[in-house]
């Protein structure tokens, strides 16, 4: 009965997140077009790389976010309210300290980086400095906000999380239209408006948690050593993963700026924006799924945890494949319809490679969450992060020898596949799940479905001319083929029954209040 309740909970939370995602999909793509049109390719690329510099100094936040989410969800799973309050209080204090550290680093090393290292035209240097100051302040509020959004996700209250995502996206779209008609400097105006949005979102999260999460809400200036010590150990080893991820994303973005200039940064930013819209399907699913993995582990329901883990790997890939296959084949058409003729060079190939990379990484999310649930991540992070760190130096060497900007993405694909295989080893060591079982139940199923589905878009792509008609036919037939293959080849009997129950519950309007 509890398993059924958890499944329904995942379904309802996923529904909230997908409603959010569908709106964000439309709004984020429209925002990118309006922003590119308002700023121009050069300022669009500069805005992206300026934000990337601040992200370099706030990389510790992603580490703390992982630790915060893990420990909050774990304590909810054990039902220990006292430890839950102490964990939340420690998290707020820690994130506030990190926020001030980021401000100090930004005002010293960051300013030097912007003014002496980055490839910025002289006539845009003043605007970039103003934008940089505003981004630093916005980042502070985003950092401090992390524990508040984490506790909402840990309690699986996805309704508020969905509403706030929609508010943030719509507000940013409106800000882009304001920038478009503003007589003032476009880059500075955009930075000010988005800074105000960040402050507003933080205040709303703070008020909600104080009034609706009273059992966990607690703010103190004292560290609880019994809580802080294991969190800091967890954070220390997670730090390696954060550094690797930072260098893979923002580090490569800065390399692109140094070797190819801000216009190519714009291409990279657009490609990542499209990928974010597509992978929103998978991200929303894993956001709803991950708390269940941690809670079932905390409650020592290991059979249920394994079931959720396997379903997470398969369904994440299937969800991404539904949009990913059509997007890969129709990237040039999508870009032309979306951006018109204002498409930076390399955008198409970068978009395709990023989607392929995301397809490989879909398997890693649920595996990583399950391993992190154990709290024993030292060896895991040491190996996985060590391999991932190779992205930056290898990409630098290739760029130094004249290779094109999309080379880094090809390198990331190879390294991501290697780390995926490495994760299976740790899944066996720490979760007692044999790699062969995961390969048989997840990899083989998803690989078979992908191979059987691939000919449909491939044939349509080759026999029809590019245009709206081919785009519609390819999307419809590919989606239909994918769904049929997923149903008959990619799912087990109990999973098909699970999906049928979902549709039955939706049809009969049977919901569970959370």
Automatic annotation (TrEMBL):
It is found in: Cell membrane. GO terms for cellular component: plasma membrane. The chain crosses the membrane at residues 50-72, 92-118, 130-153, 160-181, 187-208, 315-339, 345-368, 380-399, 405-426, 438-463, 469-490. The keyword Transmembrane applies. The keyword Zinc-finger does not apply. Keywords: Cell membrane, Membrane, Transmembrane, Transmembrane helix. It comes from the Bacteria. InterPro entries: Poly_Biosynth_Transport. Its main location: membrane. This is Polysaccharide biosynthesis protein.
